[in-house]
Amino acid sequence: MAKPHVIIISPALAKANNGNWQTAHRWSRFLQERYHVTLAPSWQGMPAGPAPAAVIALHARRSAKSITAFASACPGLPVIIVLTGTDLYRDIKTDADSRTSLQLATHLVVLQDAGLQELHPALRRKTSVIYQSAACLKPIVRKFSPRYFDVTMIGHLRDEKDPLTFMRAAAMVASPKVRLTHIGGALDPALGKQAEATQRGYPRYRWLGNLPHATTRQLLKRSHLMVIASKMEGGANVIIEAVTSGVPVLASDISGNRGMLGDDYAGYFPVADSKTLAHLIDRTMTDASFYHALQAQCDMRAPLFRPEREKTALLQLMDNVLNKSGKHT
């Protein structure tokens, strides 16, 4: 018996090297045991092979044309939309195409519990929460007073990620042992120029540009701390990769980060507050009890981010979706 055909639409593919691509690629692997999977940047019409049984689309706004075209070409078939950070915290409130996508969706997915609160109650009834995952890397055993204290931020240079807050913190951190490393391509050229200027002015700050995912994970694993300064996040892969590598996190105090790390997490700083971020970086380096408390809180969240948990949740969703539509697996 032929496997049902599931199409995953991700406007960001491998070249983008971002969180949405990592999600799409990982889900395609999880589904391949039971489904024939096609991964594409857009809906390109009925495929030559087996007819689709369902479509999974990442990004309500950027995939809006594909969602509308699929719903028109395949009426009655399941349309599953994975809501990203810009979807949840901006676009569905202001963008007509995003709202149309929500109405066409038969099922929605958010990537952390707090995302449900951004949806109208009528939409929550067709929404599942699926935490993303990453393979655990064996943590490095570190002395608490190292020669250098390495702090890493991972994210392309664009406004939503707020790289300027991390750059400005480079001028405010007190300890000479702290080294700040930023990994990510300059999607906004002006931010790239600012990163170059920050490197020249503050040698403690390094901008490495876009690196392969495996290289980035190894650099993160060897860090003492990770910073995520974003203005909006749907469920950041980089938090998962830090937690599953034993690296504590300092995070901007936004809904998407709270949904990942918990409301009681001690490592939040106000959005765009470089001064508080710099203070927290200094504190994590000098206050062993605070550093280990952050580690312990991250360790408690780690079970949420296990690959087997994400895979089970995704396969259960697909089984339910296709059974309801009459497409039995």
Report on this model:
By secondary structure, this protein is of the alpha/beta class. The chain has two domains: 5-132 and 306-324, Glycogen Phosphorylase B (Rossmann fold, 3-Layer(aba) Sandwich); 149-304, Glycogen Phosphorylase B (Rossmann fold), CATH 3.40.50. The protein is built from 13 helices and twelve strands. The strands form two sheets. It has a six-stranded parallel sheet, sandwiched between helices. Strands 9-8-7-10-11-12 form a six-stranded parallel sheet, with helices on both faces. Strand 3, helix 2 (64-73) and strand 4 form a beta-alpha-beta unit. The radius of gyration is 20 Å and the shape is elongated.
The best one-word shape is elongated
Relevant CATH superfamily of the largest domain? Glycogen Phosphorylase B
**Proportion in β-strands:** 15-25%
Put simply, the count of helices is 13
- Secondary-structure element string: EHEEHEHHEHEEHEHEHEHEHEHHH
The average pLDDT is 93
Low-confidence stretches: none
And the CATH topology of the largest domain? Rossmann fold
Q: Domains counted in the coordinates: how many?
A: 2
CATH class of the largest domain: Alpha Beta
Termini Cα gap: 9 Å
**Gyration radius, to the nearest Å?**
20 Å
| Secondary-structure content class | alpha/beta
- The CATH architecture designation of the largest domain is 3-Layer(aba) Sandwich
Largest sheet: 6 strands, parallel
In which order are the strands of the major sheet placed?
A: 2-1-3-4-5-6
Strand segment count? 12
Helix share, percent: 40-55%
